[in-house]
Amino acid sequence: MEELAIFGGTPVRKEKIYYGHQNIDQSDVDAAAKVLMSDYITCGPAVLKAEKDLTDYTGAQYATLVSNGTAALHLACIAAGIGPGDEVITTPLTFAASANCILYCGGTPVFADVNIDTYNIDPADVERKITEKTKAVIAVDFTGQAAQLDEIKNICNRHNLIFIEDAAHSIGTVYKDRKVGNIADITCFSFHPVKNITCGEGGAILTNSTEYDKVLKDARTHGIIHRPEDFTYPDLNEGEWYYEQHFLGYNYRLTDFQASILSNQIKKLDGFKKRRQSISDFYRNELKDVPGIILQEQIPESDSCSHLFIIRLDSNIIKCSRADFFRAMSKENIQCQIHYIPVYWFPYYQDKGYKMGICPNAENIYKHIMSIPFYPALRDEDCKDVVKTIKKVAKYYSR
Ligand SMILES: *Cc1c(COP(=O)(O)O)cnc(C)c1O
After folding, report:
1. Close Cβ partners of 42 (under 8 Å, ≥ 6 residues apart)
2. 149-174 pLDDT per residue, tens
3. Measured from the CA of 97, which atom of ligand 1 is nearest?
4. How far apart are the first and last CA of the chain?
5. Residue 134 bridge partners (DSSP)
6. N or C: less crowded end of the chain, CB within 10 Å?
7. Pairing of strands 162-166, 134-140
8. Is the pTM of this model over 0.70?
9. How far apart are CA 365 and CA 115, in angstroms?
10. pLDDT in tens, 262-314
């Protein structure tokens, strides 16, 4: 058997491959440069243009561009009216922001478990966790695969809850012929460098509700209103400089040069999606029969723009720990990552009284998964090296 690099063998690769990487080319640089030399570098036409590009792409009626995905989730919770005493149900198998946004508003995150095969939030457990205090559900399209959106929507409709979709992973995904962004009551995107498209930092909130859109746009700039018809003190309106602050909002604006990069990235999104699908197909095909490796189940309703590719170790076959497997991969120069530590395991959440063990599937999945290198710029040779390494390490550690 081939000796692993971790024990002094030759690594599969000379140079490291990381789990994710942004995709920026000269056209993105040109788009930003053009705006930087123009009159408006923030609050200008490029922001409006990128918002229109997002609505054109997704089919949603309104888009609000913000400074990052976390800000998008925060404003979504504000638009949903989350406040002290309100419970919001979400998944623990996500980045902390999906739950932190509830706490920003004084609400209480309630964790529903995930499906053991798809890793997405389990609608049956969502329904079990509903109380008279529940106000909203935040579902995450984990790895870019749409959650069971229709099932969740039906539950929300029956219980009069607001459905927020954390689509940080899933811009480009189509669910039953509808684009993500045009499905939930409010959808949030992130444009962080590892996500499907990027502008450095950035986020967006999409909705078909005129009311939500108004709150979202006002909250993005301090809760300040410029519309004379909405003024509380019309008598003070002496001239065009006049405005009023109506509630406590934030500065969550995105710059115009970032927005111009985003518009350019949206043009390339379907191309990225194709490449992500082809890498995903290659990995699935190569790994489906490798003893000890379990793949995330795909639901046929989701035509996914995959963000992550996750392998799960079958501890009946792989005799080392996940940590040892991860380190062995790293020594072969395949740098994996783990998505995610269950949110309520963090000391901050533990101090709030969340018990360990409340979502056994999420915990079980967390203990056995890792995200392997996955982004459009990977070359076919890189993907072959990733597969070769997984096979090498899995074989070495197989019982
Ligand atoms: C990245 C991410 C966020 C936060 O987005 P930022 O742009 O980094 O603030 C929220 N939820 C999920 C699931 C994410 O992956």
Report:
1. 253, 254, 255, 256
2. 999 999 999 999 999 999 999 999 99
3. 10
4. 14
5. 87
6. N
7. parallel
8. yes
9. 10
10. 999 999 999 999 999 999 999 999 999 999 999 999 999 999 999 999 999 99
Instruction: Give the chain's length.
Output: 399
Mutate to test the pocket of ligand 1, among 22, 66, 75, 98 (most ligand atoms within 8 A of CB): 98
Using the atom order of ligand 1, give the atom closest to the CA of residue 194.
1
Distance 29 CA to ligand 1 centre (A): 24
Nearest residue to 180 (alpha-carbon basis) of 307, 284, 280, 66: 307
Q: Whose CA is nearest to atom 10 of ligand 1?
A: 97
CA of 20 to the centre of ligand 1 (A): 14
Residue 204 alpha carbon to ligand 1 centre in Å: 11
Give the position, in ligand 1's atom list, of the atom nearest the Cα of 201.
Answer: 7
pLDDT per residue as tens digits for the range 58-67 = 999 999 999 9
Strand 87-90 to strand 62-66: parallel, antiparallel, or no bridges (unpaired)? unpaired
Give Cβ neighbours of residue 74 (< 8 Å, ≥ 6 apart): 101, 104, 105, 250, 252
- Which amino acid is residue 219, in one-letter code? A
- What is the DSSP secondary-structure string of 126-145? HHHT--TTEEEEEEE-GGG-
Task: Calculate the CA dihedral of residues 47, 48, 51, 57 and round it to 10 degrees.
Answer: -120
- C-beta separation of 218 from 236 below 8 A: no
CA 73 / ligand 1 centre spacing (Å) = 9
